[in-house]
Please model this.
Amino acid sequence: MGTAFEYYHTNQGVFLEGLKDLLRIPSISTLPEHRKDIRRAADFLASELTGMGMQQVQLIEGKEGQNPLVYAEWMGAPGKPTVLLYGHYDVQPPDPLDEWKSPPFEPDVRSENIYARGAVDDKGQVYLLVKAVEGFLKGYGKLPINIKFLVEGEEEVGGEHIEAYVKGRPALIKCDAAVICDTEMFAPELPTITTGLRGLVYTELEARGAEHDLHSGMYGGAAPNPMHALAQIIMGLKGADQKIRIPGFYKRVTKPSKAELAAWKRLPFNEKKFMKGEMGATALVGEKGPTVLERLWSRPTLEVHGIRGGFTGEGAKTVIPAAATAKISMRLVPEMEPKEVIKQYTSYVKKLTPKGIATKVRVISSAPASVVSTENRFIEAAAEAMQQVFKKKTVFMRSGGSIPIAGLLHDELGVPVVMMGFGLPDDNLHAPNEKFHLPNFYRGIEAMGRYFELLGQ
Amino acid sequence: MGTAFEYYHTNQGVFLEGLKDLLRIPSISTLPEHRKDIRRAADFLASELTGMGMQQVQLIEGKEGQNPLVYAEWMGAPGKPTVLLYGHYDVQPPDPLDEWKSPPFEPDVRSENIYARGAVDDKGQVYLLVKAVEGFLKGYGKLPINIKFLVEGEEEVGGEHIEAYVKGRPALIKCDAAVICDTEMFAPELPTITTGLRGLVYTELEARGAEHDLHSGMYGGAAPNPMHALAQIIMGLKGADQKIRIPGFYKRVTKPSKAELAAWKRLPFNEKKFMKGEMGATALVGEKGPTVLERLWSRPTLEVHGIRGGFTGEGAKTVIPAAATAKISMRLVPEMEPKEVIKQYTSYVKKLTPKGIATKVRVISSAPASVVSTENRFIEAAAEAMQQVFKKKTVFMRSGGSIPIAGLLHDELGVPVVMMGFGLPDDNLHAPNEKFHLPNFYRGIEAMGRYFELLGQ
Model:
């Protein structure tokens, strides 16, 4: 027996091969045809956890059609804190497929990065949690603290199962703190803890005109066109000035504290690099007034993700479609209430709906924003552990994304939630050519290991 | 030997089986994967034309990748007029497939109608031309006039091949008049000749934002979203009041003559029946001022047919797409010049394009509107022939659709163009459950036969 860190260093190649195996499983939770792959990914993790000596390893089943939670624990450190480690094994769909340089489910290592759907979001980060624990169990024989794993398979589809499960407050997941490993660092080499997330309301807005598709020659000039109705509603929801026009939408939005704003100003943020290097865009848009980071972290947004309906194939089809559906989501900031936003949105859509068109709103998922406190030993130890591994002072940031489980674990279990993440801003989350920077995979393992040690002292 | 009309009456069942065979061929010209079916449809017609005794039967090939024209002639009536019969054997794509009550390429007869893609547009009408001629050749031994067939396979994709061919003014298609059988009757039982068609400019408008898809959490609030840009441009092109905002767009639009407007007012048009019965809509939209028929026949329009890009699958994907493409077409009325309209449209799209977005317009097809004269023996005989068969006075109408070949044959061959058509307003042209009313198939054959006789007297 040596130390966990010796184990980490001698097993880097093995860890990489294991990660590749996990990434090869197309566990896409938004597509029902991948239900078997979802289970394969859960089984893969359960089998690794069992193999390294975790106990109570089990798949926690939900309702019919829900994806299992993977649970495991090691409780051999009485008197020491118990930390719940969270991640998710499901991934986003890979489309548009033709923009991938290597196939999304055939992991490919190119210049220190591993490319695959789920590389950073979140399989790479789940797997670093697993390996960090394995280092102690297999390299040293025991852990300095008690550990519980709770890994879900529905993060990309709203996480209904874990929400219901956590709300039941089962004894199995009792803990002193929860660690979420599903976020990113503010910049390469800059250890980062995320302290706030935006919420999300994701909807489908269907517009129906005539009963059936109509010929645009025969009926154009008299027929209501759902595509135009959607354009009109979308422009009514968010103007060209990027202001959201839904009455009451901004009423609960508060400004971050002066201290937080000052800390954000100190972050090494280069607007031009963000725009050109990271996004490949020619301009940044958004509300007038707030800075870019304020817009991303502390202002709500509304975005259209796609419109289904009509003719989109090669060539020309002169159809006025009977119906069209837009995917529209809103990001929420702290204090905004999803239920209230849904009501405001739905009733304003109704008001914006033009003559001859019937609209219907379907809410696919919703979660409030969350802000976590930075003043407790679990966050302090996390900042210290990351600082020791990365050799730089850990910064605190918010994120524009949404991790509903953060608020849920905090509210239901009443414990501090620590968001340590090792993704990079250019990791192409949810986009083609998603990647994970391999040095961060290995440093993530070490930082987690160091974190367990600090908490065990 | 008897008469053509005896032949028509005794062969109704055979004609129906032949029509079904033609309808079974999925000759969709907009989809490259159906290239073989295109050729099968052309071969099918050539083989029928040969079998009934037409001469010079041939497939006229165009450039690489273009669909053949089917040509045939019977010139055994010296001193009598020569009439060129036009139709098309290609069809629109059948999507959305799930709205068909019977599969689009398995013709199904239900209560006097035959349902299939292409039933009325235009295979049923091409086939009635073929059978009208066959009646004379096989039932009577000869035709009362000279006949030429010119049937194309690219009507639904812009008709490049026939355009180039006709512009070459080959001796083969010299004639005294052209008959187009690809239009509809104003109402059931009401014999109709179409005297005007709208033109068409069909475009693809691509909007590009960032270089790659972006996560709407991480970038929402700063990233340009091509879906919103398209909504903004679409609303800029045509306002909620249905007025097209492109500068100069209406400048050449003229009002129909007082006589024409008066004739339209006399047509048996029921706005409520048109809206509810035919379209299944709850309101008619369009410019304030002109009547519905005026809007459909004598006013230009702009319609969006579909938007490609982003995420449109099941569930939720929080993507800000890098690019999105809208299919947008404009219907033109007489005097409007497609080239000028394309220029106006393209430069206005550029002006409407918001910051951070690059747009590109691709013109897929364009054709001017056309109005034909009603004062010549070929139209007069057509009106008389239809009146004799349908036992009602033939009416003259315009159509909101576009048949570019009408203007082309008129301008290049310098002959009258006669648009006799037998479709019905509820035939679901370009839509699911396209049909052809079988009594009109049979009456169409007889009306054509009677037309040939009248011209031969």
Remarks:
- The CA atoms of residues 132 and 445 of chain B lie 5 Å apart.
